[in-house]
Amino acid sequence: MITIKKRLSSSQIIILGFAGAILFGSILLTLPFSTRDGHGALFSDALFTATSAVCVTGLVVQDTATYWSTFGQAVIIALIQIGGMGVVTVAIAISSFSGKQISLKQRSTMQEAISAHKVGGIVRLTGFIIKMTIIFELLGAVIMAPTFCKEFGVLKGIWYAVFHSISAFCNAGFDLMGTKTPYSSLTYFVDNPVINFVIMSLIIIGGIGFMTWDDIKVNKHHVRKYRMQSKVILITTVLLISLPTLYFFLFEFGDKPMGERIWSCLFFRHRQAFCP
Prior knowledge:
The chain is an all-alpha fold. The protein is 68% helix and 0% strand. Helix 2 packs across helix 7. The radius of gyration is 20 Å and the shape is globular.
């Protein structure tokens, strides 16, 4: 096994890591206690859901809230977290926290996984990614929790806040709003500024990428010092949000009240999978 591992390239390790996460998640989702009916999911449904979660596409064949049990939902959100952060990032973070020495091969794989410009400082960058991910997801969950707790009760509300915070930050598009109406997404909160603003903010922060975060952290407001990649990402993000939002406001959602219309236009451009 050690010989095989040494022969694998960084790209092959990344691919096998994702494949392993998808396969393991699929097996867990076929267990009887992963679905609400206690029979478990068909392997095809489980495989599709696990693949969609790890690859953060937001596509589902079964409503996440009404078909999967709490355990099944926990598996899905864990797969989303792994896919959003990257299998290699999670693996190296676990190795670092356990006190193991990170080899040069692992550093090289991490560099390729997150498109870092150099191997030096990659462990520090991994720690920064983990820390910022936890902070943003926890902050989003805390802000949304009062609204969800009021709507669904304390325990369920906290779970909903955590689930949607992780899903939004990882740009996954999964939601638990099927308890209102199956596949309804966040349409029920179309006029709620807190849920809209937090979800949109998490989508942007998670979407701009780890290297852009690092650029902002190091250079702060000195935009001229940013890497070209970060400049392109930030400028493109602003344009792709502002221009389509203006278009949707002028030509769509004309039948809605003004406040609801504005949130709908903003949210629709941010993430159609979550669109109110």
